[in-house]
User: Fold these one by one.
Assistant:
Number 1:
Amino acid sequence: MKKLFLALLALVVLAAGGGLFYLYSNINNLIVEAVETYAPPITKNSVTLDSSSVSFLSGEGSLSGLRIGNPEGYKSPELFKLNKIGVAIDLETITQDVIVIKRIEILTPELTYEKGGPAGSNVEQLVKNIKASTAAKEKGAQPAASGDAGKGAEKAPAKKVIIDLVSVTDGKVNATLPMVEQGVQVGLPAITVRNIGRNTGGVTPEEAMKIVMGHILMVANNAVAGPLNELKGKVVDKVKEELEKKVPGLGDSLKGGDVNKKLKGLF
């Protein structure tokens, strides 16, 4: 009996060691797979990650080539290109219900900002998609009614995260208007978001993404507002000029403020 017990103990140790070795040797492949599997249902469009380089021992490393596709109805192939993301994870929490991420540092991101569509812009549409995913997740997490008791096992609680710091630096925004090939490029001001979920015992990944994207949307809107209005003015002036060439004398009738508003409204 003693020998049988020792043999079983040895098998348990080997199995645990094998699991740790598998996790250690495949952690970056698992990260890439997780991003490309779980992010698209949240954003409702494509999400790809080129590579991950995170140390299993320290929990620190980086992600490279994260791309978020444009929502349906917009022209450019991708909304976000995040060239490099530095990450630091508290490994002691990796198997717990609430995973603590010490920091996410987004470096040199490229954002394509397209006006138009029912949401107003592609970034606003992305935020709308994430909000819808969050609402659906919250609805699905509601406890079953008493009449449904016993119809299957209770679902395990959803994983939550705490993110102590998210920073975005050295970014740029390529902004475009409907029906206008020319665009403008502006710098994206630095963004810092702290203590996501820290005071509430964690938030779902959908909620965390909604918070971060909300900050990015606000900053991006402010950054492109002036340049896009200036571009609108140039386009309207160009339209007037072309119309004047085709219909001499029309220019005077196009000087009214209402006409300017209508022309700008096309963009």
Number 2:
Amino acid sequence: MKFISTLIGFVLFVLFFGFALKNTQAVDLHFFLNYELRGPLVLMLLGFFAAGAFLGVLALTPTVFRHRRETHKHKTTIETLQSTAQQGIAQPQPDGVATPQ
């Protein structure tokens, strides 16, 4: 399996490298206030791809931290329930559940 993933990585590298070699012509990017940026097309594509990936990771950061916080809360609840079960304390029942007598 490692050989196949290495082979796929090598093929993708060759394809992307060939794409880079075919797209070396200069392009102009026009921004507001008459600001202009000139450079090779492949570097412009790489720059905007990297910026998009960075912004995507930045957008997911609050979700990741929320999931980590919830996981920590659930682990704490599980540890508390396990410690009360080991001490022989009766488990609290949810509202509306009748306990047998």
Number 3:
Amino acid sequence: MKVKAKEKDGIVKVKVLAKHQNIGPEEGEKKKKEANFITSVVAKVGDKIVYELSGSGFMSKNPLYKFKYKGKKGDKISVTWTDLKGETKTKEKAVK
């Protein structure tokens, strides 16, 4: 997972590239693979949730998420995704 976070005028713009196959139920049947896709993405600064998403099997492979929140340089943003099998990945980045 790659995370970029930049602050300008009190607004932090975040880009998250989640590396995941995201195989939906229909695609899994066609390819004879088990369905597995990102079911949730949560971004936090400290204990505050600044972004939350519930996913489905209709997302692309290696999805890119973009969002904004009010923040400042030096904040530590932590992004975590969870997939259908329960696997999680977390990445922490300081805001530039």
